[in-house]
Design goal:
This protein is of the alpha/beta class. The strands form four sheets. It has an eight-stranded mixed sheet, sandwiched between helices. A two-stranded antiparallel ribbon has the order 2-3. The radius of gyration is 17 Å and the shape is globular. The relative contact order is 0.17. It binds cytidine-5'-triphosphate (CTP). Cytidine-5'-triphosphate (CTP) binds next to helix 3 and strand 9.
Length: 217
């Protein structure tokens, strides 16, 4: 069948996708522009490569690839709980989710009524990927980074800080790359500072390159 191979046969791969949604009250939330397309493409390609795939996604409007188990979450804290539960049993984690850096300090039980002005207190969310990097034993870890400048320099720093095996960095200021489009232009950055730039291509093709790179790792 088209696209099928055995690059990840028998492996268990966890993929995170989409953006997290941080509740303010029962009606409102803070979100970001992530569509989940990149993560869903990776889940599909990993499944086609013979892996057992667990897809942890924030609220997304995308079909779940055939044969992939989806675990829907909303907040960063929920995403962390699900991923931490899987971590010991998987061979790799590909963290393409756009995890909110902050959550709301006190989520209101009731709808917040209009006021002339209001202040919302935010608290830093846990860094899921950095936590995985600290506790890494046998797993391969692939992180993502969305930057608007100095992509390579920031990327190399992120690889070290989060103890990654590979970083997929993209310059979201470029046209046809990053959030909510079907194409992407990424650079793979490795712990030995090796850098591999890919041209602009469909997210499905980017996903295939990521699976190839993971198989090599
Ligand atoms: N990530 C995570 N938990 C967070 C934030 C990010 O697991 N709370 C993961 C993302 O899924 C992604 C990578 O870490 O794989 C992105 O790294 P991050 O340092 O958050 O990138 P930026 O937000 O771009 O960093 P900075 O704010 O320093 O530019």
């Amino acid at each position: 069948e088209l696209g099928k191979n055995n690059l990840l046969a028998g492996k268990r791969i966890l993929v995170s996708a989409g953006g997290t949604q941080e509740a303010i009250d029962p009606i409102r939330y803070i979100a970001n522009r992530s569509s989940g397309k990149m993560g869903h493409a990776i889940a599909l390609k990993a499944a086609q490569a013979g892996a057992k795939v667990f897809l942890v996604s924030g609220p997304v409007n995308l079909p779940v690839p055939f044969g992939v188990g989806q675990f829907p979450v909303k907040t960063a804290v929920e995403m962390k709980e699900v991923i931490d539960d899987f971590y010991e049993s998987v061979d790799a984690v590909i963290m393409s989710a756009a995890v909110a850096d902050y959550g709301v300090a006190e989520v209101a039980d009731q709808k917040i009524k209009k006021q002339t002005s209001m202040t919302l207190e935010l608290v830093k969310n846990p860094d899921i990927l950095a936590g995985l990097g600290e506790r890494k034993t046998h797993q391969k870890l692939i992180g993502f980074a969305a930057e608007t400048q100095d992509v390579i320099a920031y990327g190399k720093e992120k690889v070290r800080k989060k103890n990654l095996d590979m970083l997929v960095a993209n310059d979201v200021s470029k046209e046809n790359a990053g959030f909510d489009v079907s194409t992407n232009e990424v650079t793979f950055i490795y712990p030995d500072d090796r850098v591999v730039h890919l041209s602009n291509m469909s997210k499905l093709d980017v996903a295939e390159h990521i699976i190839q790179a993971l198989a090599e790792l």
